């Protein structure tokens, strides 16, 4: 019997998403946006990010993204802020 290495899989905005390694919420946001982020969650380029992150229905503060480790089965929603209403 062979052991299969199972990469953690989360549900990201309703779609299954395989994590390549143990990932923090900060790593996921950087991957999704294609932007380098500082440990406090702000873009390294000094621009605005305009995103909110919720895991299993709970909003995770931007400053906590780097310390929040995503695990197999987490349901993650990344929401883009839009102007107007």
Question: Could you list some keywords that capture this structure?
Answer:
85 residues; alpha+beta; Ubiquitin-like (UB roll); five-stranded mixed beta sheet; 1 helix; 5 strands; 11% helix
The helix content is 10-25%
- As a whole number of angstroms, the C-alpha radius of gyration is 14 Å
CATH architecture: Roll
Largest sheet: 5 strands, mixed
Structural topology:
Elements: E1 9-12, E2 15-18, H1 25-33, E3 51-55, E4 58-59, E5 75-80
Parallel strand pairs: 1-5
Antiparallel strand pairs: 1-2, 3-4, 3-5
Describe the structure.
The protein is an alpha+beta fold and 85 residues long. It starts with 8 loop residues before the first strand and ends in a 5-residue tail after the last strand. The radius of gyration is 14 Å and the shape is globular. It has one domain (9-80): Roll (Ubiquitin-like (UB roll)). It is 11% helix and 25% strand. Strands 2-1-5-3-4 form a five-stranded mixed beta sheet, with no helix packed on it. It has one helix and five strands, in the order ββαβββ. The longest helix has 9 residues, at 25-33.
Short description:
The chain is built from 1 helix and 5 strands, in the order ββαβββ.
């Amino acid at each position: 019997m062979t052991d299969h290495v199972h990469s953690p899989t989360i549900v990201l905005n309703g779609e299954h998403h395989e994590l390549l390694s143990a990932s923090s919420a900060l790593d996921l946001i950087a991957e999704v946006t294609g932007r380098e982020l500082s440990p406090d969650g702000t873009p390294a380029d000094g621009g605005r990010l305009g995103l909110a992150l919720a895991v299993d229905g709970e909003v995770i503060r931007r400053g906590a993204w780097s310390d929040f480790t995503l695990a197999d089965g987490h349901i993650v929603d990344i929401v883009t802020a839009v102007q107007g209403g």
